[in-house]
């Protein structure tokens, strides 16, 4: 396939200042009439050919300045429309009529139907599946859209912007016109038409303008959009208060659809959502679902400024909108909930998804320089590491200067299709600082490693850190340059408070942050009388791996006393990880894993520490997952040994703390009336982690079964079901609970996703047969991305022992399924296939079988560009 390169960017010869679209909707043959006002760009001499993008299009009519174009004057293929000699005048009008079949569209890009509702997805390159266009993000156009449809089939007609004229067309058809005054790229175009229920509300902006808010959902589900609407209003207010950003149209519409390739889409004034991220009540959604809804509603809303008003010049700049908008939604959630708990959750996600990407064959810079298929670059690196990079800018500049830079960004670039260079420039201009070395975070792939050795000289009252940075090689980047790494830190004294030091030598230290810029720094703190415990990378100030020789006593001390909550969590997590790695080694050596008494007791102390939030305690005592342990071991992975080691530590902690955990579990009690707020969710989280521990003890299945039947909300019910299915799969309690759950929710697709997920993650040899059987379940469908992700995605990415079964049957099933999904939906298949990205870290037997699986996919006929790109890079 073709390779696109950043350095090949050229502005287009033509612009499209105005785009008027008419849609005559019909499931099998929709007509799209596009009337474009086209302008030659200033400074272009002559009349270069006009080349419009298409994808699978059928051209019905083309007119230039009101006259039919002679067939010799243009060339149309499904992939492009070329006008060799456009008019010599500066401006001309082009009319293009295409025919498309939304009902046949299973890739869910362009115009398609979900549950009878017409909807669109155009990012990144879906607009070209609707009409011929300059389908690139630097072509900003003002759109007017007229939709015509059968009134009974689609009483609701929506597009971007503000509503205009609407009326009857006779013959049971009607129309509506929408106008969006803000010039936008084609990827932000959206249309929705169908029969949906409405939840309406309103919002008065800081300057006093009233905005009509609407969320459209399936009829009968209106009640389930309450939390989404509340999240929207809080997001709108927050963006005014924290970033000074007001909403700019008269209406803001959200539509929930059940067939969607990802989470949601920020189309101007008309966000389209995967219904999983809109619909929730206590009976059907977990606390994690509520938190995701809040975050994603906010994320898409925040794109209105970071993405829509200021968009990307080209797709290499994707992180300009995504990394920044993730950072904004993280900050929003931190303000709405517990900042410390939110930060820990973010870091866990980053390590689980971005680190393996950055450390494997699919590694790429936050701003990539080349791609074959842009859809494969909506990655954890672009999104999550992109957000971490913005966070580091704020750490380096300080909150006030960061806000000044953001203000300048909005002022200088409103209406632009901008670049990462533009973004960095505003912070340099606002602060007068040089960010050129820092910019490497955008350009260089790989997770930097920082190695630290600490020593205290009691005679001279000096504390010294020897710090070294290195960036490991990544595909096509073998030589790396040195990074600017902001390392937040504290020297913790015996009273648990940070020790003051008199002076620092060897690196620049500002406001508790060591700035690493060289390969090696010897940083000496003078005036330090007692040997401190060193707390490094506080708040996870830099997305790095840290290797530091630390005494277990120091880590235990930090786990109890570090003033930075994140580092406190980190200290205990490091202890747990070290213990699990050692235990895995024991299992492999045929020995019984053993754990330090102090460690298992500390779990009990943290669980019961009433000075800490429930949610923090729950996170602290949750063991690293099997994939986390595998990542930290790094090579020669045997998932069965990891599983055995982890279960052994669960058992050791549960046994030692048995009566304490039982009492705590009882005290936390079953929930009374439900509230989705963070404090209530934290209490449930702690109680459910305790259940997980207690369930490993004798009669654990009875306790879990009681928990299951007493549950009055989905969080508790799903937690109990998971414990039963994973820890006591053969018990009557597990079988009954799975059956009861299925019976109760069989017609609620989103809840059935949880049922599929729990079973797909069931550890052990039997999972592959179970998952295969479940693909035939009436609630499952290969055509629906949520179902596929729940069952197949969970199996491949969250079931280490099942998927990586030593005999390779997990991989065989995976190959068949990925290829079956691909026939309909290449994007979802390509995403699934990334589950094998860490195949080289497996032990040799599994490694060979995983490689065969990848080769089998790459040998399949008519492989899509999406899947080919992933598989070839993974094998390279
Ligand atoms: N911008 C969209 C993602 C589009 C993915 C296209 N393959 C959602 C978001 O990040 O907000
Ligand atoms: Zn986004």
Structure description:
This protein has 876 residues and is of the alpha+beta class. Among the domains are: 14-195, tricorn interacting facor f3 domain (Immunoglobulin-like); 746-876, Peptidase M1, alanyl aminopeptidase, C-terminal domain (Zincin-like fold). 41% of the residues lie in helices and 22% in strands. The chain has 27 helices and 33 strands. The strands form eight sheets. It has an eight-stranded mixed β-sheet with strand order 6-5-9-3-2-12-15-14, with no helix packed on it. The radius of gyration is 28 Å and the shape is globular. It starts with a strand and ends with a helix. The mean pLDDT is 98. The site of zinc ion has 4 residues, from helix 3.
Task: Describe how the helices and strands are arranged.
Layout lengths: L3 E2 L8 E11 L5 E11 L9 E4 L4 E7 L2 E2 L5 E4 L2 E4 L7 E10 L9 E5 L2 E5 L19 E10 L5 E4 L2 E9 L2 E12 L6 E4 L2 E8 L5 E8 L8 H18 L7 E7 L6 E2 L4 E5 L12 H16 L8 E2 L5 H19 L2 H20 L11 E2 L8 H18 L1 H15 L3 E2 L1 H12 L8 H4 L5 E9 L4 E9 L14 E8 L10 E3 L2 E3 L2 E4 L3 E7 L6 E4 L8 E4 L3 H10 L3 H24 L8 H12 L5 H8 L4 H8 L5 H18 L1 H11 L9 H17 L5 H11 L3 H14 L4 H14 L3 H12 L6 H8 L10 H14 L1 H4 L5 H16 L1 H8 L10 H16 L5 H11 L1
Parallel strand pairs: 2-12, 18-19, 19-21, 22-24, 25-33
Antiparallel strand pairs: 1-23, 2-3, 3-9, 4-8, 5-6, 5-9, 7-8, 10-11, 11-16, 12-15, 13-16, 14-15, 17-18, 20-21, 25-26, 26-31, 27-30, 27-32, 28-31, 29-30
Helix pairs in contact: 1-2, 2-3, 3-4, 3-5, 4-5, 4-10, 5-6, 6-7, 9-10, 10-12, 10-14, 11-12, 11-14, 12-16, 13-14, 15-16, 16-18, 17-18, 18-20, 19-20, 20-22, 24-25, 24-26, 25-27, 26-27
Bound molecules: (3S)-3,7-diaminoheptanoic acid and zinc ion.
């Amino acid at each position: 396939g073709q390779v696109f390169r950043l350095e090949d960017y050229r502005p287009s010869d033509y612009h499209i200042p105005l785009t008027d679209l008419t849609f005559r909707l019909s499931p099998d043959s929709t007509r799209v009439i596009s009337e474009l006002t086209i302008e030659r760009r200033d400074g272009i001499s002559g009349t270069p050919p006009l080349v419009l993008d298409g994808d699978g299009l059928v051209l019905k009519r083309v007119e230039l300045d009101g006259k039919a174009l002679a067939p010799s004057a243009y060339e149309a293929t499904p992939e492009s429309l070329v006008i060799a000699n456009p008019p010599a005048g500066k401006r001309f009008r082009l009319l293009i009529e295409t025919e498309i079949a939304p009902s046949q569209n299973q890739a869910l890009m362009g115009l398609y139907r979900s549950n009878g509702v017409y909807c669109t997805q155009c990012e990144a390159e879906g607009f070209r599946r609707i009409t011929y266009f300059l389908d690139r993000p630097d072509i900003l156009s003002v759109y007017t859209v007229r939709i015509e449809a059968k009134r009974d089939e689609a009483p609701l007609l929506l597009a971007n912007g503000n509503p205009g004229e609407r009326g009857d067309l006779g013959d049971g058809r009607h129309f509506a016109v929408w106008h969006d005054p803000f010039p936008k790229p084609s990827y932000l175009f959206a249309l929705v038409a169908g029969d949906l229920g409405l939840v309406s509300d309103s919002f008065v902006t800081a300057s006093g303008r009233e905005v009509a808010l609407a969320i459209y959902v399936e009829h009968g589900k209106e009640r389930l959009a309450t939390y989404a609407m509340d999240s929207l209003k809080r997001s709108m207010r927050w963006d005014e208060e924290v970033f000074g950003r007001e909403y700019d149209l008269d209406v803001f519409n959200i539509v929930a659809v059940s067939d969607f390739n990802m989470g949601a889409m920020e189309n101007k004034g008309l966000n389209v959502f995967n219904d999983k991220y809109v619909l929730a009540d206590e009976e059907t959604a977990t606390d994690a679902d509520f938190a995701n809804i809040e975050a994603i509603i906010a994320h898409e809303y925040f794109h209105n400024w970071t993405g829509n008003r200021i968009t990307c010049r080209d797709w290499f700049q994707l992180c300009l909108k995504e990394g920044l908008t993730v950072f904004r939604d993280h900050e929003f959630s931190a303000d709405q909930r517990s900042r410390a708990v939110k930060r820990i959750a973010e870091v866990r996600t980053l390590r689980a998804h971005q680190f393996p990407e950055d450390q494997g064959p699919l590694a790429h810079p936050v701003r990539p320089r080349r791609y074959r298929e842009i859809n494969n670059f909506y990655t954890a690196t672009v999104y999550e590491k992109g957000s971490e990079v913005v966070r580091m800018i704020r750490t380096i500049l300080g909150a006030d200067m960061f806000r000044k830079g953001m203000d300048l960004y909005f002022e200088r670039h409103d209406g632009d299709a901008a670049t990462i260079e533009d973004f960095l420039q505003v912070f340099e201009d606002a602060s007068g600082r040089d960010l050129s070395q820092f910019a490497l975070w955008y350009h260089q792939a790989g997770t930097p490693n920082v190695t630290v050795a600490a020593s205290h000289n009691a005679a001279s009252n000096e504390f010294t850190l020897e710090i070294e940075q290195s960036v490991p090689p990544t595909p096509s980047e073998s030589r790396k340059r040195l990074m600017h790494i902001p390392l937040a830190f504290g020297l913790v004294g015996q009273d648990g408070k940070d020790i003051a030091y008199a002076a620092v030598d060897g690196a620049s230290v500002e406001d508790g942050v060591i700035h690493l810029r060289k390969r090696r720094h010897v940083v000496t703190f003078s005036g330090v009388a007692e040997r401190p415990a060193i707390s490094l990378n506080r708040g996870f100030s830099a997305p790095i791996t840290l290797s530091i020789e630390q005494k277990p006593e120091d880590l235990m001390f930090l786990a109890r006393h570090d003033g930075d909550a994140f580092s406190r969590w980190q200290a205990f997590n490091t202890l747990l990880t070290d213990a699990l790695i050692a235990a895995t080694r024991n299992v492999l050596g045929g020995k019984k894993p053993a754990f330090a008494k102090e460690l298992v007791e500390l779990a009990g102390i943290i669980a019961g520490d009433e000075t800490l939030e429930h949610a923090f305690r729950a996170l602290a005592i949750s063991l690293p997952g099997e994939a986390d342990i595998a990542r930290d071991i790094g090579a020669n992975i045997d998932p069965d040994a990891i599983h055995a080691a982890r279960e052994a530590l669960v058992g050791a902690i549960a046994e030692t703390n048995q009566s304490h955990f039982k009492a705590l579990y009882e005290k936390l009690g079953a929930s009374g009336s439900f509230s989705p707020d963070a404090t209530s969710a934290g209490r449930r989280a702690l109680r459910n982690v305790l259940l997980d521990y207690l369930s490993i003890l004798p009669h654990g299945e009875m306790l879990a079964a009681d928990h299951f039947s007493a549950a009055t909300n989905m969080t508790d019910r799903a937690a109990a079901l998971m414990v039963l299915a994973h820890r006591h799969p053969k018990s009557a309690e597990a079988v009954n609970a799975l059956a009861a759950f299925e019976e109760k929710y069989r017609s609620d697709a989103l809840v059935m996703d949880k049922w599929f997920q729990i079973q797909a993650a069931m550890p052990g040899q039997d999972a592959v047969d179970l998952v295969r059987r479940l693909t035939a379940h009436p609630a499952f469908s290969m055509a629906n991305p949520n179902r596929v992700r729940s069952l197949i995605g969970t199996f491949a990415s969250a079931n280490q022992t099942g998927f990586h079964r030593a005999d390779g049957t997990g991989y065989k099933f995976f190959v068949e399924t990925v290829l079956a999904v691909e026939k309909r939906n290449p994007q979802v298949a390509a995403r699934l296939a990334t589950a094998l990205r860490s195949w080289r870290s497996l032990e040799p037997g599994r490694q060979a079988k995983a490689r065969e699986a990848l080769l089998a996919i790459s040998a399949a006929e008519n492989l899509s560009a999406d899947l080919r790109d992933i598989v070839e890079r993974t094998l390279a």
